Amino acid sequence: MAAMQRRQGPNVVGLFGVLQPLADGLKLLVKEPVLPSSANTVLFLAAPALTFMLALLAWAVVPFGEGQVLCDLNVGVLYLFAVSSLGVYGVVVAGWASNSKYAFLGALRSAAQMVSYEVSIGLILITVLLCAGSLNLTEIVRAQRTLWYVVPLFPMAVLFFVSCLAETNRAPFDLPEAEAELVAGYNVEYSAMGFALFFLGEYANMILMSTLCALLFLGGWWPPLGGAALTWVPGGMWLGLKVVGLLFLFVWVRAAFPRYRYDQLMRLGWKVFLPLSLAWVVLVAGALVAFDALP
Questions:
Q1: E strand or H helix at 70, and its extent?
Q2: Measured distance CA(155)–CA(150) in Å, rounded
Q3: How far is CA 116 from its chain centroid?
Q4: What is the pLDDT of residue 294?
């Protein structure tokens, strides 16, 4: 990001600054946690742990290769959707337990934003499920062996990626951390490891959403174009490369675009993404029935 904006990043800790994240983590680990005197102590301490725990729970059903999955649920997509929906609670509890108007306003913003874009994500997932005929993530990837879903469902892939930006509170939709009007949003009262757990959860969600995007639209662990000549490369490596590419897009978008206003964010979610994704569900279902191509 520093290279994109031609500004000097932190480059002193380790070679080219690669150890800077470790230095930041160590700094937060040894800092003294500050508890606001009027906060609800139990909920205040539980909120960051809840956010981080939910971010890790979702990985249980994510396949990294053929048969390389912790729990191969037949309703894996439904499980992922349920766990990601619960992430709202960590944010709302953090804002309310802080007993601060700024934190509470940031929490309400974040909750409204996450719920709004979950609706469009749900409809986009339905288009993929119609094509694959299964809620199992491994089966969805197997169905893409010859043709990745990004080709027939390209508009949905773009909508899904933008919805992921909003769902994970990343720029240009990072309204919960809008420092101009809300100081730092729902986590304004947190310091030390409480603050660190929120951001670990946020970045874990970023990686999860990138992995989900790769599994649903980019063929998961299959090589490009179903190339038999490329099958000697391990499937997990192909999936890793796709995830890294999508994470690069997350950073690129953050460096390139200014922050949306809150009313623009809501208008985009409810008046643009919701009708578009709903129309595409009807179109895909109609096409599959018309051409007798239902799986």
A1: none
A2: 8
A3: 14
A4: 84
pLDDT at 280: 94
Which amino acid makes up residue 17?
G
Is 228 in contact with 67 (CB distance < 8 Å)? no
Residue 182's pLDDT is what? 58
Structure tokens belonging to residue 23: 């230095």
Does residue 176 sit in helix, strand or coil?
helix
Amino acid found at 192: A
The pair of structure tokens assigned to 200 is 């670990």
Helix (H, G, I), strand (E, B) or coil at 268: helix
Query: For 60-84, how does the pLDDT look when each residue is reduced to its tens digit (9 = 90+)?
Result: 999 998 888 888 889 999 999 899 8
**Cα separation of 46 and 51, whole Å?**
9
> Smallest Cα–Cα separation from 117: which of 281, 273, 275?
273
Query: Helix (H, G, I), strand (E, B), or coil: what is residue 38?
Result: coil
The single-letter code of the amino acid at 150 is V
pLDDT per position as a tens digit, 22-58? 888 888 888 888 888 888 889 998 999 998 899 889 9
Q: Note the pLDDT of residue 223.
A: 86
Q: Taking residues 186-194, report their average pLDDT.
A: 84
- The answer to whether 130 touches 288, Cβ cutoff 8 Å, is yes
Counting Cα atoms < 13 Å in the Cβ hemisphere of 74 gives 1
Per the model's pLDDT, the better-predicted residue between 157 and 178 turns out to be 157
CA distance 85 to 80: 8
Average pLDDT value for the chain: 87
Which residue carries 């520093």 as its tokens?
A: 2
In 3D space, the residue among 100, 111, 107, 88 whose CA is nearest the CA of residue 39 turns out to be 100
Alpha-helical (H) ranges within the chain are 20-30, 41-57, 76-97, 101-132, 137-142, 154-167, 179-182, 192-217, 235-256, 262-267, 274-290
